[in-house]
Amino acid sequence: IENYIGADIVEDLIQQNQKNYADSKRQFLPLDIIQDKLPEADLILVRDCWVHLSNELIIKSLQNIKRSKIRYLLTTTFPDEKFNFDIQTGSWRPLNLGKKPFHFPPPLALIQEKSTESGGQYFDKSLALWRVTDL
């Protein structure tokens, strides 16, 4: 890794990470994935974020990523889920980004986390990789 930028909307978390882990190649910034200008990067990791956002805010954050100079998206998806339902932001639900309303193409790579959360109910929880231009 040449440079790493960690970002979150939780200011205390950013300050803690900056204090504990920042160096010449790692920095931590307060950023809102939905509306802030995102730094140029080869890859953005959006892990366990969209599962807490409404479909509308996921689409807005995806549009923001597409406006950026980010080449790849690595994000949480649940490929065994049959459909997606909407939530109020702050709640939680599993998302299959290949299903509507997102309709992502098959990922370039899929890393199954083999999650044991909720008694293994979400064993299909995975990180999937896409080229941003393909979305």
Number of helices: 3
**Uncertain residue ranges:** none
Strand order of the largest sheet: 3-4-6-5
Strand content: 25-35%
Alpha-carbon distance between the termini? 25 Å
Give the integer mean of the pLDDT values: 95
- Coarse shape: globular
Largest sheet: 4 strands, mixed
- What is the string of SSEs from the N terminus onward? EHEEHEEHE
Description:
The model has no long low-confidence stretch (mean pLDDT 95). The strands form 2 sheets. The protein has a 4-stranded mixed sheet, covered by helices on one side. Strands 1-2 form a two-stranded parallel sheet. With 135 residues, it is of the alpha/beta class. It contains 3 helices and 6 strands, in the order βαββαββαβ.
Please name the defining characteristics of this protein.
135 residues; alpha/beta; four-stranded mixed β-sheet; two-stranded parallel sheet; 3 helices; 25% strand
Fold blueprint:
Blueprint: E1 4-8, H1 11-21, E2 26-30, E3 41-46, H2 55-67, E4 70-77, E5 109-112, H3 117-120, E6 126-131
Parallel strand pairs: 1-2, 3-4
Antiparallel strand pairs: 4-6, 5-6
